[in-house]
């Protein structure tokens, strides 16, 4: 019997020869199931990136639903494919009829806002440069939906094999405090922090769970990048240099499993 991912790839003729993408899709299907995305829903996705989550959402809402996918990044951002290139591939499939992509778009000033059945935040909160900015997003989200589906890496790792990803995330966040960069880790938010921020924005937490995601490649990717940053801290205060070196040393002695993912459903 074919897996859900295999059926998806054949149905829409996407990612058939991309084994890495298939692994990423599996995780997005798990998130969509956790969110409870249903046929006919109108969904806004904030921080759509190359569309990994977007295509799964579009599959789940079906022809009678719609996904509005926005990202503050421009079309030339991303590698090996840019966001624009990835979106064009998606738009050439039947899924394209169910998706409206909006790049260079800040949610706070997005003119196309309306009421949505649900808003999805999937692995996009660490891009935020400050908790204040994220809090502004959450407060505005509360005015246009009754359902917030939030997913992010869980810093509270439960297995030593995940320590490397944890250390890498810490290093990349530290690096973002000493230099401006376009890294996908700017500010770390824990499950508890997001829980409080959602409640402060007026949401009640209807459900929360942990989604197993150790099999994803993200831990290896983040560790690979973090290992190149030792010299970036040479001009930093001594305490920061020592902390960065210690994290790099600990990371090198760790496994490469990714962190698990926490899901919070706000209503």
Automatic annotation (TrEMBL):
GO MF, one term, reads: methyltransferase activity
Q: Does the record's keyword annotation contain Transferase?
A: yes
**Which example biological process does GO assign this protein?**
methylation
The name of this protein is SAM-dependent methyltransferase
User: What organism is the protein native to?
Assistant: Chryseomicrobium excrementi
Q: Which UniProt keywords apply?
A: Methyltransferase, Transferase
> Signal sequence: where?
none
Give the InterPro entries listed for this entry.
SAM-dependent_MTases_sf
Q: Which domain of life is it from?
A: Bacteria
């Amino acid at each position: 019997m074919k897996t859900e991912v295999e059926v998806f790839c054949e149905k829409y003729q996407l990612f058939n020869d991309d084994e890495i993408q298939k692994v990423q899709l599996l995780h997005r299907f798990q998130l969509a199931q956790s969110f409870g995305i249903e046929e006919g829903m109108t969904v806004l996705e904030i921080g759509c990136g190359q569309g990994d989550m977007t295509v799964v959402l579009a599959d789940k809402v079906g022809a009678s639903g719609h996904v509005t996918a926005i990202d503050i990044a421009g079309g030339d951002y991303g590698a090996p494919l840019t966001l624009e290139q990835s979106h064009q591939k998606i738009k050439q499939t039947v899924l394209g009829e169910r998706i409206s992509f909006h790049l260079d778009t800040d949610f706070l000033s997005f003119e196309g806002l309306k009421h949505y059945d649900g808003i999805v935040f999937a692995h996009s909160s660490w891009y935020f440069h400050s908790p204040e900015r994220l809090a502004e997003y959450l407060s505005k989200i509360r005015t246009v939906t009754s359902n917030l589906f939030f997913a992010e890496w869980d810093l509270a790792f439960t297995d030593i094999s995940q320590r490397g990803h944890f250390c890498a995330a810490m290093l990349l966040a530290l690096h973002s405090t000493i230099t401006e960069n376009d890294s996908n880790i700017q500010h770390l938010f824990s499950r508890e922090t997001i829980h409080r921020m959602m409640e402060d924005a007026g949401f009640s937490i209807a459900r929360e769970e942990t989604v197993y995601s150790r099999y994803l490649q993200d831990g290896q990717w983040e560790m690979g990048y973090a290992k190149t940053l030792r010299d970036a801290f040479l001009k930093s205060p001594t305490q920061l240099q020592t902390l960065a070196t210690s994290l790099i040393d600990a990371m090198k002695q760790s496994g490469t499993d990714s962190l698990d993912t926490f899901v919070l459903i706000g209503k």
